[in-house]
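Usage example:
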Amino acid sequence: MQKKPEAPKKTLAAPVKPVAQDPIVPPKRAVQPIQLVRGMRDLLSPDAAYWKQSQDLARSLAATYGYDWIETPIVEETALFIRGVGKATDIVEKELYSWETQGGEHVSLRPECTASIVRAYIQHGMLNLPQPVKLWYSGPMFRHDRPQAGRFRQFYQVGFECLGEADAVIDAQLVIVSWNFLKELGIDATVRINSIGTPESRLNYKNALISYFRTKRNRLSEDDKRRLLKNPLRLLDSKDPNMVELKAEAPQIIDWLDEESKAHFMHVLEYLDEVGIPYQLDPYLVRGLDYYTKTVFELYANSMDQELAQSALGGGGRYDGLVELLGGRPTPAAGFAIGLDRVVSRLKELNPPTESERQVDVFLAQLGEMGRKKAVALFESFRQANIPVGEALAKASIKAQMEMANKRGAKYAIIIGQKEVLDGTAVIRDMDSGTQEIVDGKKVVHEIKKKLGLLTNESKSAGAAH
RNA sequence: GUGGCCAUAGUUCAAUGGUAGAACACUGGUCUGUGGCACCAGUUACGAGGGUUCGAUUCCCUCUGGCCACCCCA
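Running the assembly step on the lines above writes:
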């Protein structure tokens, strides 16, 4: 190859008159590629196995623990979340995707699913079903938060909710299920658990906390002063080093629980002890949603190297007041949700993806137009026989096809060229040994079945009778 | 939402005030009858807009997106 292009380029360039009538320079690209919307992402095929693994496990746990499938809409009336999650929470205050529809409805993308489940429970009269009603869900949630690793604006949760039963054993079993979920995926996690009592006892505690911190007001950071006014419970998980000291002296919620909540919490812990679930009592654990009562818990990944910021994998608790708050009859309930995005990234770290691309046992290679035609038909025969076969029908070179066969880990390559078509045969190549045999073209599927050990005794004789 | 760092081929990374290279990947060839090797060739990028400048991918501003910390949580 000479450098011929030089000349034509110049001759082409010369006659172009710099008319410059249109100042718009032809763009390098026809159109600009469009970026992802902030905080959104594509889930791609190489990760499919991890998603499937966790979703399958959720499904099977649901079956064994007796949870029924439910899927609620992604869009709900905004009021559901304002009432359900709580007006003063971060989720509602600054993370809600809300808009007004053409019809004037005020709707939002769900930031979590519990409120929707409760709405469905009320709406479908599930209180008439045998109690408790146990439901599980899996799907995308949306929060307009600042994205970071492990934090997306559309993220996926799988959750279990148990409505209509107040007993502490429910709380315990929910912790057990969520723990088992992570455990069976091979994720080492810690349960942190606490009780925040009834709304009344919590209010008393809140007041005690406020008066305690008021006396230390001058030692609080601006941030913490704001929290003291807005959500004093949040002061407890402040990371300000100053707070560690102040916290130690602060009243603890445990001491402010009513007798019933205290007993309830003790029962929950006893059940957990019985099953041997490791947990940490965390007197500072208060969840960011208003609806929780009594038991609250969170699951954290135990990271091996450095402490990851986004290590919260899930959480849940009891929400005895929520059904009533959303217009149903007073109904006790509890549940949890686990963040699949973080679980999947954890799984991926734990079991790095293997190099294996789409593996097939058999690869079908063809040569020449006649061979290709035959191969198209033969591929269909394999499909009917339910045997996955790789192909590159659009490729002409046998070499390229053999490369592909190798890349996809095929044990056998079937080769059909001009010659085979004329003879009514096919070549089967053993990719490991490199040996080849010529078989009757009509029996290729049968031969491959035999080699792959897919023949039962019956089909063996059936194949022979053919 | 606040603050900081960052943005170059599909990916991981270079270089440069005079419009860009490598590796891997991809496509083709050596080789219309055979893969795991080798060699050769080729395609593909300065996130967007504005400013400074004779000239900007490089400097400045804005936007967009990513990462980190906070906030909060999954």
